Amino acid sequence: MPATIISGKEVAARIRKELAGKVEHLRARGVVPGLGVILVGDDPASHSYVRSKEKACRELGLHSVVRRMPADASQAAVLAEVEGFNRDDAIHGILVQLPLPDHIDEREVIRAIHPHKDVDGFHPVNVGNLHIGERCFVPCTPAGVIELLDHAGVELKGLHAVVVGRSNIVGKPVSMLLLARHATVTICHSRTRDLPSVTRTADVLVAAVGKPEMVRGDWVKPGAVVIDVGVNRVGDRLVGDVDFAAVSEVAAAITPVPGGVGPMTITMLIKNAIEAAERTVE
Length: 282
Ligand code: NDP
Known about the structure:
Radius of gyration: 19 Å
Bound molecules: NADPH dihydro-nicotinamide-adenine-dinucleotide phosphate
Number of helices: 10
Low-confidence stretches: none
Largest sheet: 6 strands, parallel
CATH class of the largest domain: Alpha Beta
Strand order of the largest sheet: 1-11-8-7-5-6
Helix content: 40-55%
Mean pLDDT: 97
CATH topology of the largest domain: Rossmann fold
Number of strands: 11
Number of domains: 2
Distance between the termini: 49 Å
Structural class: alpha/beta
């Protein structure tokens, strides 16, 4: 039987309705959640992501400010913009669109964001708090993955979750979130030996690699739940890290690309920005 499709579009639309209610509530208390975005350079994908974030803010009634800076902007100039947002009471969440140009030290810029405004959850304070289970901003894509699993009714406790990819943005944080839900977690990466033999043991398989359709049908245990984080452009098509056609014949449930994890990421960003605003009136 073909797998159930876990639709990120549907889940994101439902969450956005809930978020609209929260924004209304905050506005009634005189607080308009504000997101400050810093975009450096001309990368078309980054510009497109930032436009989507602005659109989502507009639709949900958030205040958003985007600082577009030239590709040769200095590190000091970028840090000054971060500092400006840190001091601005109308800005509750700050996002620096990554990647930054090579001459800018990404880690230093992320460290400059006030942890209470770090809605991407990349500041070491938030990363540390995620690891020790304290309140923090959870990175948006991993948070979206967990929302999708919840929506699919997956009871993670005791399941074997295999995450392929160990980036700071996706692989590591999603692994911590799965662990916090009492899954038994295996993290795989480019040096993992005989990867298919590991993925075949997964009850829940999360692919976050950046290699088009790498996960084949025979890499997946029948009945597994498969979350495909990958976004890869192949010619004029967008494909995930999972061979959707083959794997959907084996898995119980699977996310499509596009329309799976993608729509969740911006939704979780908006959720974090609203939470940052809520914290100011707690
Ligand atoms: P990174 O390139 O930072 O990390 C990729 C990870 O995959 C690394 O840990 C790497 O291992 C591992 N890897 C690479 N090749 C192999 C291989 N052959 N076998 C096993 N593991 C391998 O990517 P990101 O985590 O940032 O992104 C992953 C994917 O998710 C990309 O397609 C990206 O576009 C997408 N993405 C989608 C988002 C969304 O909103 N839908 C948001 C963010 C990312 P090692 O550490 O050993 O190098």
